[in-house]
Amino acid sequence: MKLISKSTGTLMAGVAAVAAAATVAAPAGRAGTPQPTPSDECVPVPGAVCGTVRTPLVRARPGLGDITVAYALIKHRDTSRPARGTVTINPGGPGDSAIASAAAYARMFGDLLKDHDLLLVDPRGVNRSDPVSCGTLGSLPATREAFVRAVGECGRRLGVRARGYTSAEIADDIDAVRAELGIGRLDLFGESYGTYLMTVYAQRHPERVRSLVLSSAYPLAVDMWGRPNARAARRALRLVCRRSAGACDGDRVLRDIARLSRRLHDRPIPYTLDGRQRRLDDTALASLVYGLAKTAPAGIGDVPAMVRRALRSDNAPLIDAARQAAPMSGSSLRRDDPQPFNPELAATVVCNDYPTLWNREAPLPVRLRQFSAGRAALPDHDYRPFGKRAWTSMSYDQGDTCIRWPDRRGPAQPTGGPFPDVPVLVTSGDLDANTPTETGRQAARQFRRATVVEVPNVGHVPEHEPSGCVAAVQTGFIRDLRVPDTSCLAAIPPAPVRP
C-alpha cells in the first residue's frame, strides 16, 4: 500500500540462490509468441519464458497511443503433465516490479512450481513495461509540503497521459497477457497494493478468477485518514511488549512516545543526511514508528529504548534510525529501494484511484479548505500517541498527498462489487501498521468466501518470514482451495526487544 512497499531484502537475497537459465520474447508487437533470446534479457529462473504485449495507454481513448507491457511466465517443473493452474503475483507499491522479483518468488513458492505456472507482469510504467517519468519525484523532497507540491507538478507534466496509469488499466493489461498466453483462469496473488490491484482485476474480470490470496490487504474503500493504521501501531507496540518477558510495558512505551512527539513538535531535532540538513519532528517520529512496525520483527523492538533514550536527551539512536529510513518531516518515503520501483508511477496510481478527502472537481482553494475542516473535526484520541496532524502527514498515499493533483475529472475507481464468488485467503501480520488485520478483514468482507489468517510476530507481507510457514499455508490454499493446517504459525518467535 505504501511507497515503502515492503522490505525487499528478503526477496532480492533469493536471486543468487536460484539457477540461471531462461528465454525471452521477441520485441514488442501487438502481442507476440515468446521466442528464445539471451537469458540475461529474461529472468534467472529455469523454465522461464518472457514476452510483451502492446495495449492502449487509455483504452477509452485509443488516440493517445499504445504502451508495452512485459511479462515472465515461469513454467511448472513436472513437464509430464499440464499445469494445474497459473498463479499471477503482484508485489505491491504501487510501482514495484514483479519481474525483478522472479527468482525470489521461484524460491519462495518452489513447491507450488512443481505443478503450477507462475505469471509475473510488470505493471505499465514500471521496469520493463515502458517506465513512466514526470521528473519530480526521483529525488524525494524532505518536507510534506514539498512532496505534495511535487505530486501535483507530476500530474501537470503528465497531462492527459496520467489517465493511463490506473489500477483498472493495469488489471486489463494482466488480462491481455492472460488472453495472449491462452490461460483460462488465474489464481490471483497480491501483496500490499497488489491486494488492491488483484481485487480490481476480480471486479473487472470475475469469470477469469479461480482464487485469490491477499497478503497484507486493504479494501477498495480506503480510509484516507489512516485511522486503522494508528490503531494498529498502538496494538503492535503493546503486543511486542506483552511478548517480551517483561523487557518493556506497552502502555508506558505509548506514553513515552506521546511525550517525545510533543517535544519534537515544539523543538524538532536537526540532523544531516548526505550532507543536507533535515528535521526530525513529530511527523518524522510517527513515520519511524510506523515503518518499524511495518518491517517487524526487525526494528520494532528497538522503539522502547530509542524513545526512552531520546527523552533523556540522548538522541543518537533516534537520529541513526532517521538516517536509515530518511523520513520526511511529513512523509514516510524512503530514499532507496533495492529493487526496481517507480515512485512517480505510485503517485499517479494513488491520485487516480484512491478516494479523496475533498471534492475532486473543486478548485484548489476549496479543496484545501475542505481538507483542513475535515482534519480539524477528527478526534485527537484516534491518533494517540501521535498528533492527528503528524499521523495524517506521514503517509505518502493518505491525507493530502493528491490535493494538488490537477485532473478534476479523471478516472474514478469504483469501490463496490460485484466480486466473484471464489475462495479467498487473506493473510495479515499482527504487528503490521501499514495494512493491519483490521483492513485485511475489511478486504475479506468484499468476498463471500474469504478466510483471514493472522500471522503472529511479523509485520508487512508475512510470507517473507524466514521459516517458510506462511508461504506453505498460501501454497496449500492455492492448490486445494481450502486453508491447510496452520499450526506452524505458533513457532514464529516474538520480536526481540532491545534493553
Account of the protein in words:
Helix content is 34%, strand content 14%. The protein is globular. With 499 residues, the protein is of the alpha/beta class. The N terminus is likely disordered. Helix 4 crosses helix 5, helix 7 runs antiparallel to helix 8 and helix 7 packs across helix 9. It is built from 15 helices and eleven strands. The strands form two sheets. The protein has a nine-stranded mixed sheet, with helices on both faces.
List keywords for this structure.
499 residues, nine-stranded mixed beta sheet, two-stranded antiparallel ribbon, disordered N terminus
Summarize the structure.
The protein is α/β, with parallel strands linked by helices and 499 residues long.
Distance between the termini: 32 Å
Lateral strand order in the biggest sheet: 1-2-3-5-4-6-7-10-11
% residues in beta strands: 5-15%
Radius of gyration of CA atoms, rounded to a whole number? 22 Å
| Largest sheet report | 9 strands, mixed
What structural class do the secondary elements suggest?
alpha/beta
What is the global morphology?
globular
Mean pLDDT: 90
Q: Strand-and-helix sequence, N→C?
A: HEEEEHEHHEHEHHEEHHHHHHEHEH
Helix segment count?
15
Low-confidence stretches: 2-39, 331-338
Helix content: 25-40%
How many strand segments? 11
